[in-house]
Structures are given as C-alpha cells and as structure tokens.
Amino acid sequence: MRLLSIDVGIKNLAYCLLTTSGTEFTIDKWGVLDLSEEISCLCSIMEKGVPCGKPAKFKKDSHYFCLKHSKKQVYQVPANDLKPAFINKQKIQNLCEIADKYKIAYEKPIKKTDLTNIINTYILETCFEPVVKINASKLDLVTIGHNLQIKFDEVLENQFHTIDMVIIENQIGPIAIRMKTIQGMIAQYFIMRNYQINIDFVNASNKLKALPTTEKTSYKDRKKLGIQTCADIFSSNTKLESWKSYFENHKKKDDLADALLQGLWFISTVK
After folding, report:
1. Mean pLDDT per 10-residue run, the chain (271 residues)?
2. Among 8, 133, 167, 185, which residue has the least CB neighbours within 10 Å?
3. 222: part of which helix (H) or strand (E)?
4. What 8-state DSSP symbol labels residue 240?
C-alpha cells in the first residue's frame, strides 16, 4: 500500500509518502510545503533585451522595479510621511507641514478632508507602491488553493494513481475554521486527481500514540519528543539511512515528524 500522510498547515504543510508492506515501510517522499508563498514579483526592466529578474521592491502601473532600477525612474520611493495610511490619521496642522515640505500646492484656508485628498493624489501620481509580502493569516483562500495545486503537482508529479490512501489531520474547534477549509481543499484536490483514491480524516492526537510515553506533556515537549522518536527510528532502521541527514538538517523537523508519526500510527493500527 502507498500511504500519503498530511499534517495540515499554511506556511508549514507537512507530507510523508510511504510504501508499506505489513508493518514494514519505506519513505518515498517527505517534506514541508509553504502555501503562503506568492509568485515572486521580479523586476521587469529590460537590460540588453533581457528582463532584470531581480526581486522587486516597488511597483507602479503594473510594472515592477528592483531597488537599483527604481532609482532610475521619475517616481519617488515613498517616505514614511508619504503613505496614505499615515496621511489619513494626521491633523490639519501636520498635513500643512507635509504639503509645504514636498511643495504640494494648496490654497488657504483649506479643510482637512480636502488637503488629505490633495496629498493622497500627489502620492498616487508621484510615488512608487511598495511590494508588500502578505501575512499567511491574511492570504486569501483562492491564492492558497492555487499554491496547493501547484506545489502538490510538483511534488507528486504523475503518481496520483499509485497512491491508495491519503490521511489528513482533522481540524476541529472554532479557532480552526480556516484550517478546516484548507483541509477540505486538500481532500478535493486528491479527489479530482484520482476519484478512486481513499481519503480519511484522522484525529491529531493519533500521532501522539506513536510516542514512547503516555504521560501528559506540554505542546512544546510533545514536539521535542516527536523529533526524538523519529531520530530513534532512523538509528534503528538502516533502510532509512538516506533520510536521516535530510531530517537532521531540516528547519522544520517538528512538522516532518508529525506527518511521519501520523502515517506510522495508521500503518500499525488500521487494518
């Protein structure tokens, strides 16, 4: 049987693809996906017929610019006092000082609302917009869905019809509504890739059953224990030697451990 174990996350979605025979297993694929990553915005300025390609810091009218090429444009990098979010909170006296500082024409007397609009129009017409990285908690579900498809397609390639079972950590509780939605998106992805595939939602506590203790521990301690349990598995199983250094050098060992231990629990207990 080929089993894919998934520990749900946005920035750290862990997966482990196992091939099993009885209680024996091999790891085929194992990793952590970041579904919050947006397609990188790159500088679009042409140099000798080739796009610059460096990470963009600013944008204007659908064009992107790196720091170097932004300095060669007519637009200015907005200072802290030339940002709409800042301008909209200022009192009339501060607005007048800002307008005078940047030689923005206006007639006195003037209402706060009118001067705010004049300055914001100046910003819109003369300043770059910074390229801002979106926080994972604020990233829209459509972008997450696109990233989910792209990344799983890359990882699994054309192996969908060789996977017999997908187990996905079940998201419960009112604070997990967003994660519950992503859980459903993951399930739908695999249904559409292979409508005959078996999918099961498993309780998050099941992976803890693979740990060598029944004592009540903190979340942090359980994470450490999960990592140590995986390390012990590699030490006692020479067939997994190729994955040992991969695990030891990975930045997200705790998430990798969760996906693997969840899969091992399923293999050992579900008939």
Report:
1. 94 94 88 80 86 90 90 92 95 96 95 96 95 76 91 90 94 83 96 93 81 67 87 87 91 94 89 56
2. 133
3. helix 219-236
4. G
